[in-house]
Amino acid sequence: MRITKPQLSLSRDNRKKMVPYLLIAPVIIYYTIFWLFPVLNAIVESFRDVDGIWTLGNYIYIFKDPVFYTALFDTAFLVIFSVTIEFVLAFGLALLINTKFKGSSIFLFLAMIPMALPAVAVGAMWSSGLATRGWLNSFLMHAGIIDDASKILFLAGGEMSRLWLIIIIDAWTVIPFVMIILLAGLQGIGADVREAGYIFGGTKFQVLRKITIPMLKPTITTAMILRIISAIQIWLIIVMLFGFNRLPTLLEQIVLNYDELGAASFERIGLALSVIVAIIVSATAILYLKVSGSFEKKKEQEVE
Amino acid sequence: MATLELVDLAKRFSKKVWGVRKMDLDVNEKEFIVLLGPSGCGKTTTMRMVAGLEEVTRGTIHLDGKDITDIPPRDRGISMVFQNYAIWPHMTVFDNIAFSLKLKKMPKAEIRQRVQETADMVKIGELLKRLPGQLSGGQQQRVALARALAVKPKLFLMDEPLSNLDAKLRVVMRTELKAIHQQTEATSIFVTHDQSEAMSMADRIVIMKDGEIIQIGTPDDVYFRSANMFVAGFIGTPPTNFFNIRCSVDGEEISLKHSNFKLVLPLKDFSELDAYNGKELVVGVRPEDIAVDSSDKALFTNKVLVVEPQGSHQVVALKLNDAIVKTIVSADQSVKPGDSIGFNFNLKRLHFFNMETENRIKTASEI
Questions:
Q1: Distance between CA atoms of A96 and A179, rounded to whole angstroms?
Q2: Any alpha helices (H) in B151-259, and if so which ranges?
Q3: A260: CB partners within 8 A, 6+ apart
């Protein structure tokens, strides 16, 4: 039998082809150890009870629990309204700043402040502000808009008013982030394509609708997906303002079950909930991509 | 087909920065006007004011006698070709061209016909279903052109439309644009910094510098009767050669003394120079008006510094004192660097300029 050598010494070409794989290898190993294993483990454990016996009990418990449906509704409500409001306001601000009016850079700087605050700080700020004797009421009293007897009980409202409070705070925190992404996208579109729109008969609104927004679409898609995913995961501010279980959302329920209740059986419920949320997040993202993608196809057909 | 009038038009960007200082211009019906000047001279700003993309600081713009100074671009009856094409990447070629027609609510069949017509005119009739990303730069330029033509505008504006094309295509497009203009007869304003482009396309050239008009005239006007040294130096490649000269009148003759030569001219043909007796002035001579003269009548003899062959002719550069002088010599003459050659001026084509004002001194000898 003859021993052939070429397998040992790789050709120059083959070595070159291996370089990218070598470079990404550390990341893949890291993700396998610290991400893939825990995730797989969580999925497996969510199908077992405390004694390690295979069961669907955790999931059955969740789907029978009315709080889960409240959490589902609240989360959906938060996502739909906060993302819509954030997008509209952020887009308006981005368009405004993009006109480069006098002082726009200072305005941009000021508008970015909420983005720099960590979620805990935002929670602390607003919970101290919205308390009955908080700074918001003090401010309104000093301004003479309300008196001591008519202090607003921000945090004592029903579920809807609590939801809207969270939506407002979330919007306040996140608008700068969305605005920056959209602004970067807008600045990537040359002024001349819009000017051409005006020359060729477009009003401001028509140019926005037919030129600016379609050209900005990749940026809008990115911003929206990022926002939808993170809006599904709102919990910290809710807990800091209201405590657990007063405004249930999906993530809040995971944290409650996994960390707060302290029993091994609830931990597994938390794991099962995580799996459900992961599925919801991915499904939403895919759905959004599909929906925004299919619009494009429709337009192409119109041309034919 | 329209007339355009700019009256005392000015644009100030900030306290000290003027885009356009003062602009008075009458454009006739069907005329092809080229705004020409170095970058920063205000030519593009002027066009943008006419288009309505830039607010006017002072003055008025009249199209067909109607004041359009303050009306939005879409109501002006103009169209424009942008330097970077500015075609919309998310629309097909068809939609790009049809954009304005759709907004005007033109019937669909008519739109289809108009788009096909204009696309055929600029030779992109086959590309209507493509997206701009699938086209070459030259084809994108044609889309921009078709889009502007489809409107059938009263006034057709072009902002350095050829500057992004390669040299060969640029020359092809020049010819095509001129042919299209002759066909559509739309009053046109064309902005460029390329003087040969301006010369080859314009009915009249408006030469601008520092936000003001320096000269308005036909290509022949600006070339043969340049209003000042700036124009003489800007128009023509290679540019006009300038010589500082001392003028003295002696009886029926004028002698112009340069450190390397002495020109003697009959006073009756150049009587306007009488006023400069004993003073210095500048003589401008275009490269093609300096001819090789191997006889003993040569005005001056000088060593050749560099020879630049151009095929049809050759550019011969000399070093006269510290100044480079360029002349155009026919291709069949053998000239080598270092050769000592005699030269003579074409006395019918001398340009005289006042040394202080740099303005042209008109003489009776002008063509």
A1: 10
A2: 167-184, 195-201, 219-224, 229-234
A3: A244
- Cβ <8 Å between B53 and A200: no
Interface test with B, best of A193, A200, A208, A211 (most B CBs within 10 A): A200
| Contact list, A198 vs chain B (CB under 8 Å) | 52-53, 72-74
3-class state of residue B66 by DSSP: strand
Nearest CA in chain B to A202: B74
Which of B14, B53, B131, B155 best tests the A interface by mutation, with the highest count of A CBs <10 A?
B53
Residue A8 is which amino acid?
A: L
What is the set of domains in chain B, with CATH numbers? 4-234 (3.40.50.300), 241-361 (2.40.50.140)
Cα(A143)–Cα(A163) distance, integer angstroms: 27
Rounded to 5°, angle at Cα B120 from B117 and B125: 110
CB-based contact, B108 to chain A, within 8 Å: no
pLDDT per residue as tens digits for the range A272-295: 999 999 999 999 888 888 887 755
Number of domains in chain A: 1
Spatial distance between the Cα atoms of B334 and B314, rounded to a whole number of angstroms: 10
Residue B72: its chain A contacts at CB < 8 A?
198
Where do we find the tokens 């990218």? Answer: A20
Chain-chain contact of B95 with A303 (C-beta, under 8 angstroms) = yes
Task: Give the CATH number of the domain where residue A215 resides.
Answer: 1.10.3720.10
Residue A52 lies in a domain: no
Structure tokens at B154: 């009263």
Q: Residue B32's beta-bridge partner residues?
A: B188
B335-354 confidence digits (pLDDT tens): 899 999 999 999 888 999 99
Distance from CA of A288 to the nearest CA of B (A): 20
Q: How many CB atoms are closer than 10 A to CB B209?
A: 19
**Residue stretches of chain A with pLDDT short of 50:** 299-304
Q: How many CA atoms lie within 13 A of A204 on its CB side?
A: 4
Range of the domain at A200: 67-120+164-295
ipTM summary value:
0.87
By the 8 A CB rule, do B174 and B19 touch? no
Cβ of residue B163 closer than 8 Å to a chain A Cβ: no
Q: Residue A134 falls within a domain, yes or no? A: no
Lookup result for tokens 């910290």: A236
Task: Express each pLDDT in B84-126 by its tens digit.
Answer: 999 999 999 999 999 999 999 999 999 999 999 999 999 999 9
For B59-87, letters b (16+ CB in 10 Å) and e give bebbbeeeebbeeebbebbbbbbbbbbbb
In a domain, A56, yes or no: no
Q: What is the pLDDT of residues B274-329, one digit of tens each?
A: 888 889 999 999 999 999 988 888 899 999 999 999 999 999 999 988 889 999 99
The one-letter amino acid code at B156 reads F
Phi, psi of B129 (to 5 degrees): -90, -5
String of DSSP letters for A202-258: --HHHHIIIIIHHHHHHHHHHHHHHHHHHHHT--HHHHHHH-TTSS--HHHHHHIII
> Encoding tokens for residue A26?
């550390």
Q: A188 in a domain, yes or no?
A: yes
Which helix (H) or strand (E) segment is A161 a member of? helix A159-188
Residues of chain A in contact with residue B52, where contact means CB-CB under 8 angstroms, are 198-199
Q: Chains A, B: CB contacts under 8 A, how many?
A: 66
